[in-house]
Design brief:
Shape: globular
Number of strands: 27
Radius of gyration: 22 Å
Order of helices and strands: EEEEEHEEEEEEEEEEEEEEEEEEEEEHE
Oligomer: single chain
Strand content: 35-45%
Length: about 525
């Protein structure tokens, strides 16, 4: 549940250039985790909740151009922050206003149902120019257990500014990717998994549509250094996870949540199927989930040890969209992840199924165990008894919770592709009540909120050098083929930081759980069978 005590807030604008963390008073700062040469680094100090007229922030995923002069001020790359007032009022606990005017500061309103969301699956036959030429990364490429490992390089530190700069550029052969998920492998090692990546080992392609396309790819992080990992060869890359017979652009697998277990790294995957009918502009994307799978990997070599249907392998909802553990249980957060809104009557037929977040749990790290589901009054082994722990917005409620340093936190990009705000929620328990402590308007890298959009905000499993929360977010153009294919920088994730939130404060007004509206009937698909 979302605490209704944070009802309506007036939103002020705080522009953060190039992911630089600076104090709200406008002083130039040094990024968290960097060496400031003896000077004390500054960190963005966000106002704490007052339950009445609390300011929010506006985040620019830098580097970005200065906002227009009528936006109340702003900064160029590396400059100081400026606080200014805008007149937008946002309800952070109810359904997003889908008819509101656009925000003049970023070109996008709270939720834009009239904005096209166009993203075709590239042709699997695309070949990069000059594939027979020597590969620039050949000397740092190794093969093991059917996986190519390409040493990319290192970052100076793991603060938001360094990571944002790293991902703003081409990451070795990878020109762009989205829907990042980060898993702690222990010992300073992490696995990053991405959806839909463009991988060119020749370093000659500067466009997405002239680069080989894979449906998922991995980055292995060891301390400060990264390696790209995928199957296939440099001339013909393949996805990191091909499951039981990936068919490019027809049937594929996307990564979800996961945890390191005694058996290895467990990762949930959703099997996706291409729809025969492309939805009208604004009605979403032409694919849908068909089944949920659970894979296990060796945390050292990344060799796949197992790939099997999840115990609950349904998709209404998908349990495992996010996974987090406390000292006794591992929690599987569930959402329909429905992206083809035409299957639910079109974008305007709100609220959609993905606006509801559900919760299941297993014994700690027992991902292969039959889960029990959060109900109106406790837990049940019956999945049909589950009720949503959070139901809000118009299109989707893509919460990404983590249990970090003893605190339940969640970042949510309001309405995904369609929205322009990011929320930070905190809770004492994973089932809530969840309290919204930050409502930020977020502007894509480059500052073009009319052409580009952000989505899938996920907190990293570590905090910055000054204790701040580091958040990653995906970005793409609303019309990918027209605007991002020729400008790959539009299709790269961003990283920023916000102050670590306080514990929930103020009176709690409990809501009685109410039955959810019926979910749309899942579509039967021939790929929805065990291979």
């Amino acid at each position: 549940m979302i605490r209704p005590s944070l009802a309506r807030r007036r939103v002020a604008a705080l522009v953060v250039g190039a992911a630089t963390l600076a104090s709200a008073c406008g002083s130039t700062g040094t990024a968290a985790g960097t060496d400031s040469g003896g000077e004390t680094p500054t960190v963005l100090s966000l106002p704490r909740p007052t339950f009445d007229d609390e300011p929010g922030v506006r985040i620019v995923v830098g580097p970005a151009s200065p906002p227009p002069s009528d936006s109340g001020g702003g900064v160029a790359t590396g400059a100081s922050t400026t606080v200014s007032d805008v007149t937008e009022t946002t309800d952070v606990t109810g359904t997003t206003d889908v008819t509101g005017a656009s925000d003049p500061a970023d070109g996008a309103g709270p939720t834009r149902l009239d904005a096209p969301v166009e993203r075709d699956v590239p042709s699997p036959t695309v070949t990069p120019p000059g594939p027979s030429l020597p590969h620039p990364w050949a000397g740092v490429t190794t093969e093991s257990d059917g996986l190519l490992h390409v040493a990319i390089g290192c970052v100076p530190d793991l603060g938001a500014e360094s990571l944002n700069g790293f991902f703003a550029e081409r990451v070795g052969p990878m020109l762009g990717a989205d829907y990042q998920h980060v898993y702690d492998l222990s010992g300073g090692r992490y696995l990053w998994l991405f959806q839909d990546a463009f991988v060119d080992h020749t370093d000659l392609s500067h466009r997405l549509d002239t680069s080989p396309f894979v449906h998922n790819v991995a980055l292995l992080q060891d301390g400060l250094c990264f390696s790209l990992v995928h199957r296939g060869s440099p001339d013909a890359p393949q996805s990191f996870e091909t499951g039981f017979g990936e068919s490019v652009a027809q049937r594929w697998y996307w990564p979800l949540g996961g945890e390191l277990t005694p058996e290895g790294l467990g990762v949930f995957w959703v099997e996706m199927a291409k729809d025969s009918v492309v939805p009208a502009p604004g009605d979403g994307l032409a694919w849908h989930p068909t089944r949920t799978w659970l894979a296990t990997y060796d945390p050292v070599t990344l060799r796949r040890l197992a790939f099997r249907p999840a115990v609950d392998d349904g998709v209404m909802p998908i349990y495992g969209m996010a996974v987090a553990s406390d000292s006794t249980h591992t929690y599987l957060f569930g959402n329909s992840f429905e992206q083809n809104l035409a299957r639910e009557g079109g974008a305007a037929n709100t609220p959609h199924s993905a606006t509801r977040m559900y919760l299941a749990r297993v014994d700690r790290l027992a991902l292969g165990q039959a889960p029990e589901y959060r109900t109106a009054d406790g837990w049940s082994p019956d999945p049909t008894a589950a009720v949503a722990i959070s139901s809000r917005f118009a299109i989707e409620n893509p919460m990404q919770p983590r249990f970090l340093d003893g605190r339940w936190i969640a970042t949510t990009k309001v309405d995904g592709y369609y929205g322009s705000h990011l929320l930070l929620d905190v809770a004492t328990d994973p089932w809530g009540p969840w309290t919204t402590v930050l409502d930020a308007s977020i502007v894509p890298r480059g500052g073009d909120g009319a052409r580009d959009t952000t989505y899938h905000a996920q907190p990293l499993p570590w905090r910055g050098g000054l204790g701040e929360l580091i958040v990653t977010i995906s970005q793409n153009s609303r019309d990918m083929a027209a605007d991002a294919y020729g400008a790959p920088e539009r299709y790269r994730i961003g990283v920023f930081a916000v102050a670590w939130p306080d514990e929930p404060t103020g009176p709690v007004v409990e809501e009685s759980p109410s039955p959810d509206s019926p979910d749309p009937s899942p579509v039967t698909d021939p790929t929805d069978q065990v291979p």
